[in-house]
Amino acid sequence: MKSSFRAPSNIALVKYWGKYGVQLPSNPSISFTLDACATETTLELTDAPGITVALDGVDTPSFVPKVAQFVDRIDARHPWVKDYGFRVQTHNTFPHSSGIASSASGMSALALCIVDLAQKLGHEVANPMQEASVLARLGSGSACRSVYGGLVVWGETPSVEGSSQDFGVAYPDAVHEVFRSYCDTVALVDVGQKAVSSSAGHQLMEAHPFRTQRFAQAHDHLAALKPILAAGDLDAFIELVELEALTLHGLMMSSSPSYILMRPNTLRIIEAIRGFRRDSGVPISFTLDAGANVHILYPAAFEQKALQFVKDNVKPWCKDGRVIVDRVGQGPVSLQQ
Ligand code: PMV
Q1: Atom of ligand 1 nearest to the CA of 290
Q2: pLDDT tens digit sequence for 57-96
Q3: Cβ neighbours, 10 Å, residue 246
Q4: How far is the CA of 302 from the centre of ligand 1 (A)?
């Protein structure tokens, strides 16, 4: 018996940074689900016990511990998983060495396969999408936001009805047309292993001197985004999203021990984006994840101008001139025939 899903990555606008318990967020977050950056996974249940993982058709034992940990974490909700072996075949649609984390798309795809298989085996799943999000969260926190398209919120916050610590929810409030087709071109600055992992970064928030203010700020930012998203207020959107990105990296720089994941070219690209926006009036902006790459955000109507700017002023600062052109997507799809 097997199941196949394609699940996309996501990029947070208000960042999840800090966690407790089993992957519960210390603050709420909201993300755009992407389109081109995705993982395609087939999970086959086998009678023989054990886990095998093949990446692009090549046996990859280094992925097995992550899947084994995932199986251990979902065991309480899905005891049947221990009755089978797992054969996982997975493929990322973005380049392997891009420095783009595949954990969000990968864990979301795997979680969707589990929920599908549970149903095929005759187990009742009351709310399949919610369950897939819970399972994805247990695999890798921000993966829980990748089970839906568009804008997705994770973490309970008063301004978003139905928001939960346990799973992501499709953003339930009004969203202006401009944000439904927003573009994200990822400038690949550094494609190597990060100096400090996200898990270590989350952990450093536990004793962070600014944790209380930061967690309160994230709630405030979610609330502030509501009228911005409804009205399509690009100036306010840009200000808030860039502040979130720099706050994330500010938290890293003010952790103990402190660390820096931005590279000199990250700053060059940020400077170029702000300069181009000032000079041209094009509403182009940036966000960052926990790494050196820059996500360049702009409305679809400015795609041509933005891509010309990227070609002339961003690619020279990228590793081998590489960028990934992406946009907001519709969420995962089943790959079953
Ligand atoms: O889900 P994790 O543990 O990889 O953490 C993701 C953290 C950020 O990407 C920096 C922010 C976010 O909300 O996705």
Answers
A1: 10
A2: 999 999 999 999 999 999 999 999 999 999 999 999 987 6
A3: 16
A4: 28
Structure tokens at 190: 């550094």
Residue of 37, 73, 289, 295 with the most ligand 1 atoms within 8 Å of its CB, for mutation: 289
What is the rounded CA–CA span in Å between residue 64 and residue 53?
Answer: 6
> Ligand 1: which atom is nearest the Cα of residue 10?
14
Dihedral angle, C-alpha 14, 259, 213, 243, nearest 10 °: -40
β-pairing, 85-92 vs 51-55, is: parallel
Instruction: Report the alpha-carbon distance of residue 250 to residue 290 in Å, rounded.
Output: 11
Domains along the chain with CATH numbers: 1-337 (3.30.230.10)
pLDDT exceeds 70 at position 320? yes
Q: How far apart are CA 306 and CA 309, in angstroms?
A: 5
Return the DSSP state at 160. S
* Ligand 1, residues at Cβ distance < 6 Å: 12, 15-17, 29, 103, 140-142, 198, 202, 248, 289-290
pTM of the prediction?
A: 0.97
Bridge partners (DSSP) listed for residue 8: 38
The helix-helix angle for 234-253 and 211-231 (nearest 10°) equals 160
**Ligand 1 pocket mutation, candidates 27, 107, 142, 225, criterion most atoms within 8 A of CB:** 142
